[in-house]
From TrEMBL:
Organism lineage string: Eukaryota, Metazoa, Chordata, Craniata, Vertebrata
InterPro entries associated with the record: Brd8_Bromo_dom (IPR037966), Bromodomain (IPR001487), Bromodomain-like_sf (IPR036427)
Compartment(s) of residence: Nucleus
Chain intervals for the UniProt region annotation (Disordered): 1-41
Primary location: nucleus
Stated name of the protein: Bromodomain-containing protein 8
GO CC terms in record: NuA4 histone acetyltransferase complex; nucleus
Length: 200
């Protein structure tokens, strides 16, 4: 009864409460959550609360409240604005034209038989805007996947191979060179630690 009263006070469309006994969703090896995690994100379509916040709250057994929902919405808006600045910086890189659109087999013969998870900047932008990408770690993962695909497909003496290495270094290893030092540190928590991890 108490929960029902709290829900009425919050108004409609505020999204579901988290159970105190719900375990935090774990991620699969490819970085995309298992069905249970995807269901959690989908079930929150009426509330833009981030998956990251859900995991954190569920770990500590907290229930979301109206105030926390509003803070989460605002935090997600700030994050999306900040991460789009990073995306635009990447899209303005001198080698970005190579990575802006999907790679076709006409341009790169046999590409899809070698690369099983294609990724490009336009797809990343679409996923940010649609909410498929909700965290900085997910953004970094897909950016790295895009570069690693190019490195894997092209031989080490190919121009695209070296373009991918240089652009990856500029976008991921030297974020402050892009002029977003405060944004990386405060708003999105951009970290270069993932570069040393096997995420593929």
């Amino acid at each position: 009864e108490e929960e029902m009263e709290m829900k009425e006070d919050c108004g409609e469309g505020e999204g579901p409460y988290l159970s105190e006994v719900e375990p935090a969703a774990s991620e699969s090896e490819d970085g995309y959550g298992p069905p249970s995690q995807r269901y959690t994100a989908d079930s929150l379509a009426s509330s833009p609360i981030s998956v990251t916040l859900i995991r954190t709250l569920s770990l500590f057994g907290f229930r979301s409240t109206c105030g926390e929902d509003q803070e989460a919405v605002q935090a997600q808006k700030i994050w999306k604005k900040a991460i789009m600045l990073v995306w635009r910086a990447a899209a303005n890189h001198r080698y970005a034209s190579v990575f802006l659109q999907p790679v076709s087999d006409d341009i790169a013969p046999g590409y899809h038989s070698i690369v099983h998870r294609p990724m490009d900047l336009s797809a990343i932008k679409k996923n940010i805007e649609s909410g498929v990408i909700r965290t900085t770690a997910e953004f970094q993962r897909d950016i790295m996947l895009m570069f690693q695909n190019a490195i894997m497909y092209n031989s080490s003496d190919h121009d695209v191979y070296h373009m991918a290495l240089e652009m990856q270094r500029d976008v991921l290893e030297r974020p402050t060179d892009l002029g977003f030092k405060d944004t990386y540190r405060k708003d999105i928590g951009f970290s270069t630690e993932l570069l040393d991890e096997s995420v593929f």
